[in-house]
Each structure stands twice: as structure tokens, then as C-alpha cells.
Write a structure and sequence with these properties.
alpha+beta; Aminopeptidase; 36% strand
Length: 138
């Protein structure tokens, strides 16, 4: 009888084994994602980072992971500019669509103004709030 496998909590997890294994599987089934990170930073005249967009392009999609603008600079068009430049770069890389997630207390209205639509939601995540998943054709 073979010895039983053991599941161990690792801190930090062995990302190379787990991530590499699923990555190899995904490539075998869906092809090379041509994944490439994407980041645009909003910088003050003094060189301070005061906002930005972080994401990645892969399989003709642009995933927007994080968007943040310092509070005193919100509503002045910087977010729109950051998103426009990020989307333009994603398109240059071959992306045809974009997706992201946001909470009801963050910026769903901002993304809707940019043409994003909700394709899913998780109520009570966190409790009393909703997490929205949004997409857009580029």
C-alpha cells in the first residue's frame, strides 16, 4: 500500500511548484498566455507616486488588479487618464477585453462611466457590502 500524501501549511507556500504546475497545465490546454505585467504611475512634480494602475495582459485580456489615486487628487481626471493609457497599452499588446473587480464602496460608478459593465457580484463580501466583477471590450 502506498504511503499517504500529507498536506502541510507552508509559510510562504511553495509558489514555484503550485504556480508552475498549474501554469504548465494551462499552457498545454490554452496555449501561451504571453503574460506581461503592466503598470502606470501618477507622479507629483516632486517625484512622489500619488496613484497608479497595476495589471497584466494575457490571452488577449487586460486584467486590472489595482487602481488607486490619492484622495485629494480624485475627481480631477487623473484616474481617467491612467485608465486610458493602461487600456491603450493593453490594446497595443493585443488585448481585446479588460476585466477587474471592485467593491461597492470603491469605484463601480467610475468604471461604469468608462464603459465597464457588471458580469457578476458577491453580496456580503465584505459583510454589508458587495464585490462587483466588471468587464469591457477594448
Amino acid at each position: 500500500m502506498p504511503e499517504p500524501y500529507t498536506i502541510l501549511p507552508l509559510d510562504p507556500p511553495d509558489w514555484n511548484t503550485i504556480g508552475g504546475g498549474i501554469n504548465d497545465f494551462n499552457i498545454a490546454i490554452a496555449g501561451d498566455p504571453k503574460e506581461k505585467n503592466l503598470c502606470f504611475v501618477l507622479q507629483s512634480p516632486q517625484g512622489e507616486n500619488v496613484g497608479g494602475v497595476i495589471g497584466a495582459t494575457y490571452w488577449e485580456w487586460f486584467y486590472i488588479s489595482l487602481v488607486w489615486i490619492r484622495e485629494d487628487l480624485r475627481g480631477k481626471g487623473y484616474g481617467v487618464q491612467l485608465m486610458a493609457q493602461s487600456e491603450a497599452e493593453a490594446i497595443r499588446r493585443g488585448a481585446k477585453h479588460a476585466y477587474l473587480d471592485t467593491f461597492d464602496f470603491q469605484a463601480p460608478g467610475f468604471y461604469e462611466k468608462l464603459g465597464y459593465t457588471v458580469f457578476g457580484s458577491l453580496p456580503d463580501f465584505p459583510p454589508g457590502h458587495t464585490r462587483y466583477f466588471m468587464k469591457k471590450d477594448l
